[in-house]
Fold:
Amino acid sequence: MKIEKSDFGSLTSEEKVYKYKLSNSSMSIEIINYGGIITNINFPNSEGKKIDIVLGFNHLDQYLDKQPYFGAIIGRYGNRISKGKFNVCDKLYQLKTNNGEHALHGGIKGFDKVIWSVEEIIKKGYVGLKLNYLSRDMEEGYPGNLNVNVTYILNSKDELKIIYEAVTDSPTIINLTQHSYFNLAGESSGDILNHMVSINADSFLPIDEGLIPTGEFKSVNKTPFDFRELKKIGKDINLQNNQLKYGLGYDHCWVLNNSQKVIRKVAQAKSLKSGIQLDVFSDQPGIQFYTGNFLDGSLKSKNLKAYKKRAGFCFETQHFPDSPNKSNFPNVILNISELYKTETWYKFSNTNR
Ligand code: GLA
Structure:
């Protein structure tokens, strides 16, 4: 197992960007210190040929331009906060709004757009990167100096483990996630509608027109949101349904079963074409399943094709959107002297080999 480091450009003369390639004997994962972005995941298809299964770009400039969070670490608060307002200790905070009237994914300059410091980890059976970022008090409007570590581990079992840790010096809110767009048939292979997906959730969070949860937990039974058994993404995505209309497809948070802060299997996806399967394990209460509805063909893929609508999907493990404003949703406040620690694993395999 090894890590190879190479130059990937720079933001300023002081802010250099590097790419780190983590590999084991069968696969590799490439990560940059800008946004902690996973730029490439190469995994063997049915013929044994390695294909790249995440959306992204070849050049730093494309990551610096407006882009929809390809591969990035998201924070401080992943997903939406209604009108960017929330209370901590009876004090009202106002975030900058960057998604209509709402705040999305940490703000104008979230964790997806900062330079992380990197420590390489080489151990028996795994390699990894420990990324660190200190988010200052009131950065993007959030209270408290928040010291964040995100550790990416690739082990010999083809598992990518992501461990999020944070401490604060003043009570704040936090909801970290990872925004990789997967296409298990290959990043330039077209849409993901033929992928089979299952999500271990009996209910999901309905949203309003602004994609803010209404607060209701709705059973998936007899709805297009039922992924309890493996189902093609495309099977129900175009049905007449108000929720699908608001999301322009799937862009919802599922309420994962067995939420006791223990790591358990929460979702699966599989391409019948490449044979590549992704199993997701997490200790988080929710998963945002997003089917790339906003991709519109304007961004060029790594193979110089266009990323059109539904060219990839995301499995963003997380706490529920707008939790700070929903008293019936689990707590997202981090207090002084508490350690925020959560884990998500993406396990890759190929069932045809
Ligand atoms: C998240 C959101 C989507 C969209 C994408 C980025 O997954 O839920 O609505 O904003 O990020 O384009």
